[in-house]
Write a structure and sequence with these properties.
Elements lengths: L3 E12 L4 H14 L6 E5 L2 E8 L2 E8 L4 E9 H8 L4 E4 L14 H11 L15 E4 L8 E8 L4 E8 L2 E8 L3 E3 L1
Antiparallel strand pairs: 1-5, 1-6, 2-5, 3-4, 7-8, 7-11, 8-9, 9-10
Amino acid sequence: MEQVEIEKHWYVLHTYSGYENKVKQNIESRANSMGMEDYIFRVVIPEEEETEKKNGKDKVTMKKTFPGYVLVEMIMSDDSWYVVRNTPGVTGFVGSHGAGSKPAPLLKEEIEVILRRLGISSRHKEVEFEVGESVTIIEGAFSGMVGKITEIEREKAKLKVNVEMFGRETSTELDFEQADKL
C-alpha cells in the first residue's frame, strides 16, 4: 500500500541553472501525461522584474530570484515523488537526506512570503470567489470589514472589493489571502 500524505505542500527542486523554464514545462507536461494532475498542482520559478537602461531606454527583464531552483506544489506520494524527481533537468529535492527519503516541505510561512513577493496567492485553488459576492476582509487596513467583490484577477490572485465607509463606497484591492467568504 502506497503511503500518501493527503495535504498538498510546496517543495523546492534543485535544477541545472538555466534550465528552470524547461523543468517547469517538463513537470507540467509529465503531470498531465502521467495522470498526476490530482497530485502535482503548480510549478513556480521564483523571479522578479529587473529594469536596466539599454541605449537610453528602460528594458524590463525577468531575473531569477533563486537561480537553479524551482518550487512545486504537490501532494507527496510515491508516484508524484517519482514523477517529479525523474523529470529531465531536476537534480533533486532540497531537504531530502538521500537514501530514498522523501523531502521536507517548505513551512507555510516560508512559502507565503515567497509567493507574496512574486505576486502569487498561496490559496490559488481552494477559494472560488465570484463577482457580486460579499467577503470579510481578514488582513490589511480594512481588516474586519465586509465588502462586495466588483472584479477578480485570477492570474494575479487579486480582488477588487467595495467597502462602505462613512456612508460611501470605497474600492480596495486585496490578495486572495486577505479575504474570506461569508
